């Protein structure tokens, strides 16, 4: 039923685009398909960011979702997962049955996912779009991060909307996830976040000193996280949290994806609606980059103790923005 609803919604968005967009259909669709998806699909993603998550921790295997049942420190070993027929088996036995080798010395790095990265649909999109040839095996562990919140960041990306970042928020306990990535997966993820670049990154991969978090599974000494170079979106003196991300003790006002975009329409001088802006952002990387340039004053880097590498953001915050 969920898949049918998604397909129906994409079809409806497609009809709306066909009605409102005065562009030559083949040219604009070709621009969208550079990302491997139709314009309607991308617009729908812009509306629905950060996408549906699972109820609990799960093992992602080549677009398959296997909820964790019993979690040990060995997420790909004796930790158990539930199969679609409701039976339970060890993660290592599942991977063996699927013909996926996992070496005992394979290193997986924990990366906090707070926006779309914990969503199965986004993991599928990122690895499919890159034509990733290896098996994708990612433990995705649900947990919390204390004294931070997940907020919108003033930059437009390839699916038309603004993504998110984290910012200090004393007293807030926000739901986040840990994606455990091997070296190849970590590179693909960094590429998708525009952090594996030497000039003008969108995000910087770093750690947070003294972060207070709670997750099932191993307790690493350090947790990686991506922090936006454009900082939290601030409009009329308010920073807006991502309403779809649950949190306790939240004191920042909430906004949906379309709600956050609506708040910056006056700054952009945009006279039409959110849907039309999403569409134009997707089919015109140049317009998208120019709008990100306009929005730079609406964000600033927060002070995050122990976060290293943020000096790389200096170039991103000056001059004209890149089309992320």
Task: Produce the secondary structure layout.
Layout: H1 2-20, H2 25-33, H3 39-48, E1 58-61, E2 64-67, E3 80-82, E4 88-90, H4 91-97, E5 109-113, H5 120-129, E6 137-152, E7 164-181, H6 183-192, E8 203-207, E9 213-215, E10 224-228, E11 234-235, E12 238-239, E13 241-242, E14 247-248, E15 254-255, H7 257-268, H8 274-283, H9 285-295, H10 313-316
Parallel strand pairs: 5-10, 13-15
Antiparallel strand pairs: 1-2, 1-6, 3-4, 5-7, 6-7, 6-9, 7-14, 8-10, 11-12
Explain this structure to me?
The chain is α+β, with helices and mostly antiparallel strands. Helix content is 31%, strand content 23%. It contains ten helices and 15 strands. Strands 1, 2, 5, 6, 7, 8, 9, 10 and 14 form a nine-stranded mixed sheet that branches. A hairpin with a 5-residue loop joins strand 3 and strand 4. The longest helix is centred in the N-terminal third of the chain and has 19 residues, at 2-20. It is globular and about 55 Å long. The model has no long low-confidence stretch (mean pLDDT 90).
Short description:
This protein has 324 residues and is of the alpha+beta class. Helices cover 31% and strands 23% of the residues.
Oligomer: single chain
Largest sheet: 9 strands, mixed
**Fraction of helical residues:** 25-40%
Ends distance: 33 Å
- β-strand number: 15
SSE topology string: HHHEEEEHEHEEHEEEEEEEEHHHH
Shape: globular
Alpha-carbon Rg, integer: 20 Å
The mean pLDDT is 90
| Strand-residue proportion | 15-25%
- Low-pLDDT sequence parts: none
**Structural class computed from helices and strand pairing:** alpha+beta
Summed up, the helix count is 10
């Amino acid at each position: 039923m969920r898949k049918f609803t998604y397909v129906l919604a994409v079809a409806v968005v497609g009809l709306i685009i066909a009605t409102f967009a005065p562009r030559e259909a083949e040219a604009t669709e070709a621009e969208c398909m550079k990302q491997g998806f139709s314009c309607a699909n991308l617009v729908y993603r812009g509306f629905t960011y950060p996408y549906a998550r699972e109820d609990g921790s799960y093992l992602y295997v080549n677009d398959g979702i296997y909820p964790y049942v019993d979690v040990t420190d060995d997420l790909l070993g004796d930790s158990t997962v539930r199969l679609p027929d409701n039976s339970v088996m060890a993660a290592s036995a599942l991977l063996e049955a699927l013909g996926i080798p996992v070496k005992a010395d394979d290193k997986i790095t924990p990366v906090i996912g707070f926006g779309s990265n914990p969503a199965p649909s986004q993991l599928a999109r990122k690895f499919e779009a890159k034509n990733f040839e290896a098996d994708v095996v990612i433990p995705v562990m649900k947990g919390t991060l204390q004294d931070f919140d997940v907020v919108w960041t003033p930059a437009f990306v390839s699916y038309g909307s603004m993504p998110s970042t984290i910012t200090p928020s004393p007293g807030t306990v926000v739901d986040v996830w840990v994606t455990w990535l091997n070296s190849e997966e970590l590179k693909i993820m960094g590429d998708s976040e525009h952090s594996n670049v030497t000039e003008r990154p969108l995000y910087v991969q770093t750690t947070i000193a003294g972060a207070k978090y709670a997750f099932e599974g191993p307790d690493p000494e350090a947790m990686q996280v991506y922090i936006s170079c454009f900082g939290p979106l601030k409009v009329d003196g308010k920073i807006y949290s991502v309403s779809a991300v649950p949190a306790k003790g939240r004191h920042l006002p909430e906004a949906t994806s379309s709600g956050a975009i609506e708040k910056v329409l006056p700054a952009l001088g945009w006279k039409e609606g959110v849907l039309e802006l999403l569409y134009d952002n997707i089919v015109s990387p140049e317009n998208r980059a120019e709008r990100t340039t306009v929005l730079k004053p609406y964000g600033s880097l927060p002070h995050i103790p122990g976060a290293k590498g943020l000096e790389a953001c200096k170039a991103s915050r000056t001059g004209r923005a890149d089309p992320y």
